[in-house]
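Before the break, one more example. Copy the sequence into your notebook; we will annotate it together after we see the structure.
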Amino acid sequence: KMRQRSGGAVAFVLDSEDWSRDPAGATAAGDAAGARLRMLRDTGWTAVRVPRGMSLDEAWRRADHERSASGPVGGS
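Here is what the structure looks like once it is written out:
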């Protein structure tokens, strides 16, 4: 595990269940993306779930929001 948060560590996690389902179909069961997001965040990454249809611009805006909401980077 990382002891300090890394300022440049950003992960975009594709919500594969959302990307693989039929747009008119029901939501797939399970939350594999959620588990991966928690693991990345617990180890100091800024992690953003990317559902079907999200633009790259929106993904980066969310990453910036996540980083600013988490407080100062680094520390003791």
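The CA atoms of residues 31 and 42 lie 17 Å apart. The chain is about 40% helix and 15% strand. Try to locate both features in your own notes.
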